[in-house]
Fold:
Amino acid sequence: MKKVTLKEKLSKRKTKRPNFIYNILGWVWKTFVAKKYNAHYTFKTEIDKKSQFIMISNHASRMDYIYTGIPMLPARMNFVAGYNEFFRSHLQGVFSILRVIPKRNFVPDNYTIREINRVIKSGGNIMIFPEGMSSISGANQPIAIGTGKLIKHYKLPVYYSVIKGAYLTSPKYNLKDRVGKVEVVIDKLFTPEDLSTLSVEEIEDRINKAIYHDDYAWNKIEQNHYDIGENGAEKLEDLIFYCPKCKRQHVMKGEGNKFYCTNCGNGGTLKDTYDVVPFDEECVIPETLTEWFNLQREVVKEEVKDENFCLTEKVELGNLLDYKYLKNQKTSEIVGEGTLILDRTGLTYDGTRNGQPFNFHIDSLALPTYGMCTDLSRFYTFYNGEFMEFYPKNNVVEKFFLATEEIHRLSGGKWQDFKFDK
Structure:
């Protein structure tokens, strides 16, 4: 008899609603985890937790299932999470208990739709993070195309939460815990009547605007303190690689709590409020790290307008395992190496896999962005439904993200930027 792979098992699994253990876990989260991170909740409307609903939220950190699950108790929700996370051994227990639904991020996934439909038909509630992955920059990215169509189809009440401060407790450039303050605001976004009358585009526009949040801008005002320690700026160059003074890329360096340009010396000191205080009056430092990130995007946006734009990098290739779960918090198993090429036509990998020549190309219109499992050391996409993770030799992950997103938009792709001023 042929041995069944983990992928085959997952594709045949029928998702049920969570049972009473969900509530026990919720109590544990509320008593210990939420308290540790100083989480506070505000309800702007009365929530009918006994009636069926869909909930959505911005995605700020890896702890968001706790921040969104706790305030909705005793109601139980089936969360939707990244497909590849189901192959990591340390997540198997909690995903099984919570009965999480897998989703291949940024590509169509019929299995996900089928299982969401199964849960809703059984009377369950669904929890979706429509951005598709936790924030890289500290602010939102536009929601995944198709979110509006999904929500409109079911015509259930839709609640939403805005999570504030969670990114600052574990920024993407350095995942070390930085305990501070987290605020979660819950409100109603759509009634069934709203969903009957609004178009898919109008629904997606409202979602984008409702859940948008910028942690750095928020804390510029709030001035909450986060335990950044003595190495708060370490690896910040993985996220912010552009110097606004000398205009060069890949010259920034985080060292201790100092962040500076190795070319011209421009820089500042990162405070525990995430303000960056310039070294002197000659330094050019944007108001917040989000503004710095957005400035960097504009530079790349101009760069990719050149029809000859090309970004090339040596990478290792990672895949999911067929029969074993990934251990030691690994996100994939290295199976090859090669060259990754991004140009105006899309993304090309040319190298090896499992000792054999292997290559593929994804058109720019089919590639709105990538996924990121952990930090800025690696990124992934799906090719023919198969998980492909890239481990670059140099710190170019964020450059690949920005360039890919702007090429997709420039090419007329569906995943465009926000329609409102951020």
Summary: Residues 236-303 form one domain. DSSP finds twelve helices and 17 strands in the chain.
